[in-house]
Amino acid sequence: MKKSTPAPSAVPLWRQQLHYRLKEGALIAFGALCLYLMMALLTYDQSDPGWSHTSSNAAQVQNAAGRAGAFCADILFMVLGYFAYIFPLLLAIKAWQVFRHRHEPWQWSGWLFSWRLIGLVFLILAGAALAHIHFHFSAGFPGSAGGVLGEVLGDLAKKALNIQGSTLLFIALFLFGLTVFTDLSWFKVMDITGKITLDLFELFQGAANRWWTARAERKQMVAQLREVDMRVNDVVAPVAPDRREQAKARERLIEREVSLSKHMTEREKHVPAVIAPAPAKPAEPSKRVQKEKQAPLFVDSAVEGTLPPISILDPAEKKQLNYSPESLAAVGHLLEIKLK
């Protein structure tokens, strides 16, 4: 039977806490060293004591980083020239990477460290050579634009590959070293660059579309206002060619409005006349009806030329026309209007 392999033991809590504390310490160290080197390089003064020269006034140091900062700046400028400013930038990149992966456990790898170190060497050498080939150092700094390393490598490359070939070679080495040291993915850089470009294009396109739409609406509104002004001028000009006639027409309009409002006010206050219905008079029976109330007992055959009696007719139905007060008031108001 095969013996079962023991399960791997979990990482102790104290080791996990140690990893996180080491990351925090590395972040603080990278940040402090970055600021110190940048301060030393920016406040470099050739009168300060340094590695490449001696100073008559060694007691007074102009560098903000002190005597140690003056020595560090002098060494970096002498060896690398302008490319000495890459060190604070690389430290800032490492500090950002530590902060970005702060929640991941820290694992040491010798091969990975060696690979990063090779990338740093290529980055520094290629950058110094490019600075020596394409820049000129100003007075007040030790060495050339690329320092001692840049001067040696740049002169050798120019003799073998000329300026164009040397530039192409050192750019390739510089990008390779930057990729290895900073773990930079150029495909990701292209994706981010494309996304930013598209976002900016959409932003400018939206702004241009909004501006064009507002401009078209403004033109349309101006055209409509001009058309209205022309119509008003066409209507007003024949009626009132001068100011006096315009004033008279305005006064007539005001008088008409006042009289109309007065008439409407009186109409609202007017109480409609109440029309009382006339008393109904009983219809008087005709003499013939009274005479024929007494029907004859014996009806002889109809004599030619005589009228038939009324009693043979059905009695008339009594119809009474009832009008509501509202209808009577409306009829009275209509009668008033007709009589005016």
Automatic annotation (TrEMBL):
Record's keyword annotation contains Cell division: yes
Keyword Cell cycle: yes
Topology in the lipid bilayer: Multi-pass membrane protein
UniProt-listed Pfam families: FtsK_4TM
GO biological process: cell division
TM regions (residue ranges): 25-44, 64-92, 113-135, 168-187
CC annotations in GO: plasma membrane
Localization per Swiss-Prot or TrEMBL: Cell membrane
DNA translocase FtsK 4TM region domain residues: 21-192
Record key words, sorted: Cell cycle, Cell division, Cell membrane, Membrane, Transmembrane, Transmembrane helix
PANTHER family for the chain: DNA TRANSLOCASE FTSK (PTHR22683:SF41), SPORULATION PROTEIN RELATED (PTHR22683)
UniProt protein name: Cell division protein FtsK
Protein source organism: Pseudomonas syringae
